[in-house]
């Protein structure tokens, strides 16, 4: 076996809360005997998306001899977890939400269907209303076309990255900019994150691999005008450079009052 990076759980620190389980999009972590466990080396891709999910700091990444990450085996594993979701919720299976502990020795089969990769069929957008009053009169259709959207949770080889026009947004931007869905999401794939509160090293590694391993058509970075948010633009640019690919990219700055401030094309090539 080769030496590679895999998850390590400190069982003395782990309290069995289970927050790390849905944070692992590959389903490599489960709660067994009241503690988080790495089910199998071959399900762990070594990217560390689960690191930020543990409030006790019990999860780390280490270099050791481990079986190679097996994507096909991982997908079958996820299918089995999803298929067992109904059984998990039935009484007597010892499944607890929040910070409860597992009551029996069976693994918690919470591969979390909510973190499974999905693409959505979207209805055709309605014609723009003639007046602002019309715009307020009825519900507005979502343009979101993929799930999950958090950078930590999105699998590197998710099918929605194939040929994607990728939008990487600071997670405050959609709240501040009211026209976010119409302007940025129609026919595009979304990832969100916070460069101030989250682990930017993991973001950088994840984005680099997404650019390397997929045929990304273009990148739009949507960020807030506050200084800390510029870190997202730097992450995207460094990840693009490290990927070795020439992908057209545009930086879009949003004001804290919800106005659109600036659009800037990187390298002089429009996305």
Key attributes of the depicted protein:
single chain, 271 residues, Alpha-Beta Plaits, Rossmann fold, 5-stranded mixed sheet, two-stranded antiparallel sheet, 21% strand
Written account of the structure:
This protein has 271 residues and is α/β, with parallel strands linked by helices. The strands form 4 sheets. A 5-stranded mixed sheet has the order 8-7-9-10-11. A two-stranded antiparallel ribbon has the order 1-4. The chain has 2 domains: 3-112, Alpha-Beta Plaits (2-Layer Sandwich); 117-127 and 142-266, 3-Layer(aba) Sandwich (Rossmann fold), CATH 3.40.50. Mean pLDDT is 79; it is low at 84-115. Helices cover 24% and strands 21% of the residues.
Quick summary of this structure?
With 271 residues, the protein is of the alpha/beta class. Helices cover 24% and strands 21% of the residues.
Helical content stands at 10-25%
Number of strands: 11
The CA-CA distance between the termini, in Å, is: 42 Å
Q: Sheet with the most strands?
A: 5 strands, mixed
Placed side by side, the strands forming the largest sheet appear as 8-7-9-10-11
- Rg, nearest Å: 20 Å
Please mark out the parts with pLDDT under 50 across 5 or more consecutive residues, or reply none: 84-115
Element-by-element helix/strand order: EHEEEHHEHEEHHEHEHEE
Number of helices: 8
The whole-number mean of residue pLDDT values reads 79
Alpha-beta classification: alpha/beta
**CATH architecture assignment of the largest domain:** 3-Layer(aba) Sandwich
């Amino acid at each position: 076996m080769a030496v590679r990076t895999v998850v390590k759980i400190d069982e003395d620190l782990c309290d069995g809360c289970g927050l790390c389980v849905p944070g692992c999009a590959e389903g490599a972590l489960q709660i067994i005997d009241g503690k988080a466990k790495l089910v199998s080396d071959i399900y762990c891709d070594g990217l560390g998306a689960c690191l930020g999910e543990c409030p006790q700091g019990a999860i780390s990444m280490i270099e050791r001899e481990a079986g190679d990450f097996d994507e096909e085996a991982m997908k079958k594993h996820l299918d089995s977890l999803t298929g067992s979701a109904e059984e998990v919720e039935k009484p007597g299976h010892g499944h607890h939400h929040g910070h409860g502990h597992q009551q029996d020795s069976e693994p918690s089969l919470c591969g979390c269907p909510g973190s499974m990769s999905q693409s959505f069929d979207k209805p055709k957008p309605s014609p723009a209303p003639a007046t602002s009053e019309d715009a307020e009169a009825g519900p507005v259709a979502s343009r979101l076309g993929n799930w999950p959207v958090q950078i930590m949770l999105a699998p590197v080889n998710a099918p929605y990255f194939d040929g994607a026009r990728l939008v990487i947004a600071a997670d405050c931007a959609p709240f501040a900019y009211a026209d976010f869905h119409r302007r940025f999401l129609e026919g595009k794939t979304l990832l969100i994150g916070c460069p101030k509160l989250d682990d930017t090293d993991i973001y950088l590694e994840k984005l680099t691999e997404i650019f390397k391993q997929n045929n990304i058509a273009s990148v739009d970075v949507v960020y807030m005008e506050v200084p800390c948010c510029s870190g997202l633009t730097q992450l995207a640019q460094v990840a693009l450079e490290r990927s070795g690919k020439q992908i057209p990219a545009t930086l879009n700055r949003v004001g804290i009052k919800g106005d659109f401030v600036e659009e800037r094309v990187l390298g002089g090539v429009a996305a």
